[in-house]
Specification:
- By secondary structure, the chain is α/β, with parallel strands linked by helices.
- It folds into two domains: 222 residues, Alpha-beta prism (UDP-n-acetylglucosamine1-carboxyvinyl-transferase, Chain), CATH 3.65.10.10; 190 residues, Enolpyruvate transferase domain (UDP-n-acetylglucosamine1-carboxyvinyl-transferase, Chain, Alpha-beta prism).
- The protein contains twelve helices and 21 strands.
- The chain has a four-stranded mixed beta sheet.
- Strand 8, helix 5 and strand 9 form a beta-alpha-beta unit.
- Helix 1 runs parallel beside helix 2 and helix 7 runs parallel beside helix 9.
- It is globular, with a radius of gyration of 21 Å.
- The mean pLDDT is 94.
Length: 423
């Protein structure tokens, strides 16, 4: 399937953003550890959360997490301490996501986990058993999901958990998000040093919990506002929090440098509210930023800055090589189709100095990566008739994205992919 996109002349819309899958998946593991006694409201309806809901509900012998990295890591830790034997697997790309630091740490804690095929990667055979807990070191340079997976089960371990993070800690904001959610369920779990987190043995309290909407999803609407030309445009986004613990809430500050103003409706402290986006007339001439704590925003800002003609130098992107696709190479390839020459520096930095080449305007490929479709779609403001292949990949995190674009006045023409013969 291929979509051809044309942006509206004016943007004046209200969008009910999807719930955060990052918060949903953490809350689901906590609820399982609490015996399913918690009331979870506003759970995400995306693929990543649905596979975890089904796995925890049905607990089949073979659990296929499809393309959900967080489900893979969280379930590996959870199943290691639950009675029974399970095989944990996923899509081809998921079977190339690094698991060794997590498996090594779980084995040190007493887990019985075997690699079925390739050492260091799923599928895994997990024989659940009671784990003693205690002090363990883990490589924190690979993925924050590994750290979060261990933290979530920490209170349920017989001796609690003292987690020592080794190497360059990536996506620290997601680790803090995990701790914040654990606090909401009554847990003591805190940093005791710059690289050490400790949680004693405790019992998760039954709790009514409302999942906040997704700041990551908001970034694409910020991008639309930045790329649009009408100074009178206005977008309202519901269900976000001022002071959110979601790392990607930094978009409000980053986009203020690209000419987008954020206004929060007043509510009681800590409650979700409506955010209004408007255009400002000033913006920075270039943007340099280290995305080590928000790597999922990198595609949005690479595409947006280039589309606005703003040179950039982005660092802290080493984890992009092992996401849903090699996001660095995917960005370089697809941006060249539109005439932008993006530079890869040591597989951990991306730079654009304004270099251009002859555009081919070939359709944008999405590489089974939801964020490729989501971040490129707003470029139709600058490239009317922009074409995107395999657009349904957005179901991984934002299944109603195309519906929301239609609601906002975008024209979407649907056709089979002429190169693949359609889906």
């Amino acid at each position: 399937m291929q979509y051809t996109l044309r942006a509206p002349a004016h943007l004046h819309t209200s969008i009910n953003l999807p719930a955060s899958k990052s918060i949903s998946n953490r809350a689901l593991i906590i609820n399982a550890l609490a015996g399913g006694t918690c009331s979870l409201q506003n759970l995400s309806d995306c693929d990543d959360t649905n596979v975890l809901v089904a796995a925890l509900r049905d607990m089949p012998d073979v659990i296929d997490v499809k393309a959900s990295g967080s489900s893979l890591r969280f379930l590996a830790a959870y199943l290691s301490m639950m009675p029974g034997t399970h095989i944990l697997t996923g899509s081809e790309r998921i079977r190339h996501r690094p698991m060794k630091p997590l498996v090594d740490a779980l084995r040190y804690l007493g887990a019985d986990i075997e690699y079925i095929n390739q050492e260091g990667f799923a599928p895994l055979m997990i024989n659940g058993r009671e784990l003693e807990g205690g002090r363990v070191e883990v490589d924190a340079s690979v993925s924050s999901q590994i750290t979060s997976a261990l933290l979530l089960i920490g209170p349920a371990l017989k001796n609690g958990l003292e987690l020592v993070l080794q190497g360059n800690i990536v996506s620290r904001s997601y680790i803090d998000l995990t701790l914040h959610i654990m606090h909401d369920f009554g847990m003591q779990a805190d940093w005791t040093d710059y690289n050490v987190i400790a949680t004693p043995h405790q019992t998760y309290r039954p709790h009514s919990f409302i999942v906040e909407n997704d700041w990551s999803a908001s970034s694409y609407w910020y991008e639309m506002m930045a790329l649009s030309d009408d100074i009178d445009n206005e977008i309202q986004l519901t269900g976000l929090m001022d002071g959110s613990r979601q790392g990607d809430s930094v978009v409000r500050y980053l986009f203020s440098m690209l000419g987008v103003k954020t206004t929060f409706e007043h509510t009681e402290h800590g409650e979700p509210t409506t955010v209004t986006l408007r255009k400002m007339r000033t913006r920075l001439p270039r943007l340099d930023y280290d995305f080590v704590n928000q790597p999922d925003l990198a595609q949005t800002f690479v595409v947006c800055c280039a589309g606005m003609g703003i040179p950039f130098h982005f660092k802290g992107l080493s984890t992009l090589k092992v996401k849903e696709t090699d996001r660095i190479e995917a960005l370089i390839t697809e941006m060249r189709k539109l005439g932008f020459v993006i530079e890869n520096i040591n597989d951990c930095e991306i730079r654009w100095q304004g270099e251009r080449c002859q555009p081919t305007m070939r359709p944008i490929d999405t590489y089974d990566d939801h964020r490729m479709a989501l971040s490129f779609a707003p470029l139709c403001f600058k490239f009317p008739g922009l074409r995107i292949n395999a657009p349904f990949v957005v179901s991984k995190s934002y299944p109603v994205f195309w519906h929301h674009l239609g609601q906002a006045g975008f024209n979407i023409q649907i056709s089979p992919d002429p190169e693949s013969g359609g889906e």
